[in-house]
């Protein structure tokens, strides 16, 4: 879908934050019947960070945001819009306003986007629309999730996978010539929503008949691992290819493949289908597991900090997950 584009979108800076508590595969093997060898060989994950004590999603989201802001000449008050991609808000009415308050970004309108592991991609595309049509100049996009709160810690098929984290990006309106978001492609298949979800169910134990017919609570994460795996390795390469074709770019022109950090086998399978060499695949999931909406900005921030990504590099960002939803952005990094 095309719209009237008057401005370019410049990625000014990124930031990220993870909780201090580190849970190794060894520790997980004391909770459920599994092993470091099984987890690492099937997923590539060694450890993950878990939010504990009184810390909240907003704490890590705000640290990531401040780290990104510090790298720019902007203050929180200069931000026009905050988009928080999360599926694990503090408040069902949305958490972005709490982030706005914590940052003191009093001029910003703030709202949440719920799109699970594709959340950051969709939030970036949403932010880009507001900038490209000339409505906002400075936008903070945050991907943050604390899936540990919604994990069934007795289910070895899922509890090995997830971790908590936050990543942030500051986007700014620019001339069309210095535009960094070259193109995108987004998809949803709601027919398969129940392959990976946290569903709401009525409380069968509620004694009051009237209440039990209308009130309940959200369940824990349920997932059909094999189906989600098949979905990712088939749809993500198609999305990336579609996006590259629309920009007349070839796979060879891509410097980095940065996929949602779900599973090393998915990363390798997608790269191999597209014939992208392993050395171009960015991965940090060994340290953090699947951090949902945080995974792409967290890996992007680390790769920029490590000087892996250089001025002028083309990066494919691709997210996929519950919904089922998936999407790709082609990004040009310019210092
Ligand atoms: N430790 C040890 N054994 C485990 C285990 C664990 N943590 N989890 C499952 N198993 C067992 C199963 O019980 C099964 O045993 P059985 O054959 O005796 O029944 C066996 O290992 C194989 O299980 P299966 O579910 O077929 O494993 P798999 O090869 O599909 O790997 C996943 C499981 C979850 C790692 C894999 O399906 C996957 O990564 N899927 C994608 C999930 C994902 O990325 N989701 C998020 C997307 S955003």
From TrEMBL:
CDD domains (UniProt xref): KAS_III
Region annotated ACP-binding, chain positions: 261-265
The keyword Plastid is assigned to this record: yes
GO annotation terms (biological process): fatty acid biosynthetic process
Keyword Coiled coil among record annotations: no
Main localisation: cytoplasm
GO annotation, cellular component aspect: cytoplasm
Domain Beta-ketoacyl-[acyl-carrier-protein] synthase III C-terminal, chain residue ranges per copy: 244-333
Function: Catalyzes the condensation reaction of fatty acid synthesis by the addition to an acyl acceptor of two carbons from malonyl-ACP. KAS III catalyzes the first condensation reaction which initiates fatty acid synthesis and may therefore play a role in governing the total rate of fatty acid production. Possesses both acetoacetyl-ACP synthase and acetyl transacylase activities. Catalyzes the condensation reaction of fatty acid synthesis by the addition to an acyl acceptor of two carbons from malonyl-ACP. Catalyzes the first condensation reaction which initiates fatty acid synthesis and may therefore play a role in governing the total rate of fatty acid production. Possesses both acetoacetyl-ACP synthase and acetyl transacylase activities. Its substrate specificity determines the biosynthesis of branched-chain and/or straight-chain of fatty acids.
Annotated HAMAP family: FabH
Protein name: Beta-ketoacyl-[acyl-carrier-protein] synthase III
């Amino acid at each position: 879908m095309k719209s009237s584009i008057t401005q370019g979108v410049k990625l000014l800076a990124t930031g990220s934050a993870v909780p201090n508590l580190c849970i190794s595969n060894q520790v997980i093997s004391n909770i459920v019947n599994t092993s470091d060898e099984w987890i690492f060989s099937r997923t590539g994950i060694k450890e993950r960070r878990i939010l504990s004590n009184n810390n909240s999603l907003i704490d890590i989201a705000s640290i990531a945001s401040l780290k990104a802001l510090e790298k720019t000449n902007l203050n929180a008050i200069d931000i026009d819009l905050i988009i928080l991609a999360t599926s694990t808000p503090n408040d069902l009415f949305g958490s972005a306003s709490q982030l706005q308050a914590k940052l003191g970004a009093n001029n910003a309108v703030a709202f949440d986007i719920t799109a699970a592991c594709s959340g950051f991609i969709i939030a970036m595309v949403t932010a880009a629309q507001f900038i490209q049509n000339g409505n906002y100049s400075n936008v903070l996009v945050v991907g943050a999730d604390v899936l540990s709160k919604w994990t069934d810690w007795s289910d070895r098929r899922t509890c090995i996978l997830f971790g908590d984290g936050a990543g942030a990006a500051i986007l700014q309106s620019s001339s069309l010539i210095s535009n960094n978001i070259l193109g995108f492609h987004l998809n949803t298949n709601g027919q398969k929503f129940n392959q990976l979800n946290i569903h709401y169910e009525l409380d069968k134990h509620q004694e009051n008949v009237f209440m039990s017919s209308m009130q309940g609570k959200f369940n824990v994460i349920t997932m059909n691992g094999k189906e989600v795996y098949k979905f990712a390795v088939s749809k993500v390469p198609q999305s990336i290819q579609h996006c590259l074709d629309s920009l007349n770019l070839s796979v060879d022109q891509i410097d980095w493949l940065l996929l949602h950090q779900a599973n090393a086998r998915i990363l390798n399978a997608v790269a191999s289908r597209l014939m992208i060499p392993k050395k171009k695949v960015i991965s940090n999931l060994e340290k953090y597991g699947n951090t949902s909406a945080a995974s792409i900005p967290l890996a992007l921030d680390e790769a920029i900090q490590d000087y892996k990504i250089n001025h002028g590099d083309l990066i494919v960002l691709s997210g996929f997950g519950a919904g089922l939803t998936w999407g790709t952005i082609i990004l040009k990094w310019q210092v």
